[in-house]
Amino acid sequence: MTKHPAETIELELAILMRRLMAATTNMKVGNLDRAAYLLLHQISTHGSAGVKALAEEFHLDISTISRQSAALEQKGYVYRILDPQDGRAYSLQITERGAKELALNKQARFERVAELLHDWSLEDQQMFGKLLSKFNRTFI
Predict the structure, then answer these.
(1) Alpha carbon distances (Å) from 42 to 55, 57, 69, 78, 83
(2) How many CB atoms are closer than 10 A to CB 12?
(3) Which of 22-26, 87-91, 105-109, 131-135 is predicted with the least confidence, judged by mean pLDDT?
(4) 3-state DSSP call for residue 32?
(5) Phi/psi of residue 134, each to 5°?
(6) Between β-strands 78-82 and 49-50, what pairing exists: parallel, antiparallel or unpaired?
(7) Which whole number is the average pLDDT over 16-33?
(8) pTM attached to this predicted model
């Protein structure tokens, strides 16, 4: 009996997640954890954002994003911009230090992925990237 492609994809994703968790636990890529990397990348790419908007983007609780952004603020990677309409609300903006740290981490992550894919053809790499992007967009 032939397996449905979703069975293979599910298993391979589970294996990938396990290997990624092990790799990031045992070998740190750059100085940012995954959450910090993604938050800084989002703010850097799309501009300043409020905690609520970031929580919606990542499908997380506001309290989770608040904790993560507080850690980034404490490290000097982001700063708050108060909302002139509502003194309680604020947006987060990346600092120069945060941008530099993001760039260093992005380069380290790129080099690691490029190393893993060095035996793949350019065509296979492009197809994998395209399909992975398509898959990630299904969660929106």
Answers:
(1) 11, 9, 12, 12, 19
(2) 10
(3) 22-26
(4) coil
(5) -60, -45
(6) unpaired
(7) 72
(8) 0.83
Helices (H), the chain: 5-26, 34-46, 51-58, 62-74, 96-116, 122-137
What distance in Å separates the CA atoms of residue 9 and residue 100, rounded to the nearest whole number? 36
| Interatomic CA distance for residues 103 and 68, integer angstroms | 19
Instruction: Compute the distance between CA of residue 6 and CA of residue 4 in angstroms, rounded to an integer.
Output: 5
Nearest to 72 by CA among 33, 113, 116, 26: 33
Residue with tokens 């740190």: 28
Res. 139 pLDDT band, cuts 50 70 90: confident
Which tokens belong to 120? 């793949």
- Residue 40 burial (10 A CB sphere; 0-12, 13-18, 19+): buried
Q: Sign of the C-alpha dihedral, residues 21, 26, 28, 29?
A: negative
